[in-house]
Amino acid sequence: MEIYKLTSHELSVKLNEKAFTHTDVVAAIESRIKSIDPKVKAYVRFNGFAGQNELPAGIPVSIKDNICTKGVLTECCSKILQGFNPPYNATVIDKLSGAGFMALPVKTNMDEFAFGSSTENSCFGRTNNPWDTDCVPGGSSGGSAAAVAADEAIMALGSDTGGSIRQPASFCGVVGMKPTYGRVSRYGLIAFASSLDQIGPITKDTRDSAILLNAISGYDPLDSTSVNAEVPDYTKSLTGDIKGIKVGIPKEYFVSGIDPEIKNIIEEAVNKLRAIGAANKEVSLPHTEYAVPVYYIIATAEASSNLARFDGVQYGWRSNGPEGLIDLYKRTREEGFGEEAKRRIILGTFALSHGYYDAYYLRALKVRTLIKNDFDNVFKEFDCIVTPTSPTAAFKAGEKTTDPLKMYLSDIFTISANLAGIPAISIPCGFTKAGLPVGLQILAKPFDEGLLLRIAHAYEQNTPWHKMRPEI
Ligand code: GLN
Question: Does residue 300 sit within a domain?
């Protein structure tokens, strides 16, 4: 048996039966990474870990490079954080060990500061999609998604500000969930856009998603936006029964820009949900067309403010031989940030500047409320909303790097959930003729992660897609 192919729930059974030990699991993952990662490049700075005898026991979880692990380099795949060795753990890392997991002392690749949809904006170079290495794995959590898809990780954590868990999960044929804003602590997640960011699981199946969500959820006094609400046992939601569930299909998601092949696959998935008991009806989310512009104003504004702290004094990269303090700031930021980070700092600073604040930032906040109201209205009558995760399957590397607007449009179906603060999951639902995975997105009311998992699990029980693995 190849240990690295198993899910965490399968591993737990085997570990209980003493079929093998935790050390065997870590060794299996390490050797898998060694043999496969030169092709996939899901991990950064990897030079082995199984030899470290201080590794605690626990099912290994791979961690995105923007989640702080004490003593393990965490650089957001940016030169400006080069050498940053966090003196503390993110809350999710402590929670993992409390729940019998172990955060691997190695990080997965990502777009610099999570700015991107393809993992091409990393200072370490791009990650390759394990289904077709000429294609991107999606982003920004492309390293985590590719690692899970290529069986180089049992499960992984990513972060999602506008789709960065769900879109790469969809491009790589794995399960990715963005929890409700406030469900999971952001303490120790290096901030991109604080009102949108959430950490969430990327896994091989829905049961593992529930298990990992159980481990990381809950109130954290260290994060003032974390919500003090009871966390249910999400594995109890996996009943297999979705009879009578009301599914809304938003008409605005099936118009221009969507690949007809994707549209057909999603329609088949909706038929399948109906066949196993759900009832579906067309609904409207009338402000959908504003989601991308609103997101790129709010996200860049918050990013420009969050990134102000990287000035060569406290963290990472520091320019050599500056002429005074202001020159140190300027040179450090010029040398340390990549293209996309600079673009976003400029856009965000502009949107927040005197004279433009009301016209852009304030207006965007108002439209954000309208987008949220659209969802509230639909959820008065429907239990969930089903859409494609992305308008296309994985695209070729380099295809969108010269056109940022084109790149931004690949998030068109995922960013509304972040603006509204609601939970959403992407699950595998088929393949294109070119053999690339397609993701189905399910969205629900705040704190209804259990329902998302229940629907996703029922679908999974009746379809083969989540079992497919790339030949690599
Ligand atoms: N792709 C989106 C962006 O570039 C979302 C990124 C994310 O969720 N971190 O901002």
Answer: no
